[in-house]
Amino acid sequence: MELCKFEVVKRLTTFLGVILALLVSGVVQAQEVSDYEAYARAAGPDIPLFRSRVADNYGNYYNGTYLADTLGFLPGTICFEGKTYENLSFDLDAVLQHVLMQREGSPIILDLGLERVSSFTRGSKTYVNLPALGYDVPAGFYERMAEGRGVIYKRVSKTLYHLTDLNHDARGFIGYDDSNYRSNLFDYYQLKEFWYWIQEDGTVQRLKSKRKIKTALQAVQAHETH
């Protein structure tokens, strides 16, 4: 399935429009404009993607991680504003539900946000912006867990919480293993998972228990084998 199959392709900002906007702003000098023109010609349609803002720095004052997992940036493909881009690396800010992107050899991490991304892959994982496809589910990216008689998705959400005092231990609240847990920190990121089964007729079923998740996975996976 192509990443942009369900996305209504939006018209990208033209090169002339970008240059005119820069000239009107008066921020860049003539040499800078010339350098930008050279870059724009080389980058081509990549311009909107690489003009995203630099990602926030959360610091090291919290237990756990704000990211979806601890696997780090992994290579993948993305559908951004209706266009597919490859040979990039991605991660997911599970607090904001924003896609993070890093180009090989660059220390800069860009925040691509939520609304302009319909789906992306990260290693072997595929994430889909289900609300962008018209499904009535909370905003965010949903990892495709199984496909067959419908599709089962999981959404990982992280929330920052604060301990009232250090007599409590946040390990039991985090919801995942934190190998770098520090007992002198009050704040921690707690993980919550939300599972949904998008059935063949488009019906959305929230799977609220481990038993229902297991049953749904078995039903979908059994269908895959036939």
Describe the overall structure.
The protein is of the alpha+beta class and 226 residues long. The chain has one domain (15-224). The protein contains five helices and eleven strands. It has helices at 15-25, 30-43, 47-50, 171-174, 210-224; strands spanning 53-54, 74-80, 83-93, 98-102, 109-113, 117-122, 125-128, 142-148, 150-162, 187-198, 204-207. It has an eleven-stranded antiparallel beta sheet with strand order 1-5-4-3-2-6-7-8-9-10-11. Strand 4 (98-102) and strand 5 form a beta hairpin. Helix 1 runs antiparallel to helix 2. The radius of gyration is 21 Å and the shape is globular. Mean pLDDT is 83; it is low at 8-29.
The portion of residues forming beta strands comes to: 25-35%
Number of domains: 1
What is the ordering of alpha helices and beta strands? HHHEEEEEEEEEHEEH
Q: Please report the total strand number as a whole number.
A: 11
The residue-averaged pLDDT reads 83
User: Tell me about the biggest sheet?
Assistant: 11 strands, antiparallel
| Anisotropy-based shape | globular
Amino- and carboxy-terminal Cα gap? 20 Å
Uncertain spans: 8-29
Helix content: 10-25%
Q: Please tally the helical runs, counting DSSP H or I stretches of 4 or more residues.
A: 5
Quickly give the structural class: alpha+beta
What spatial order of strands do you see in the largest sheet?
Answer: 1-5-4-3-2-6-7-8-9-10-11
Compute the gyration radius: what is it? 21 Å
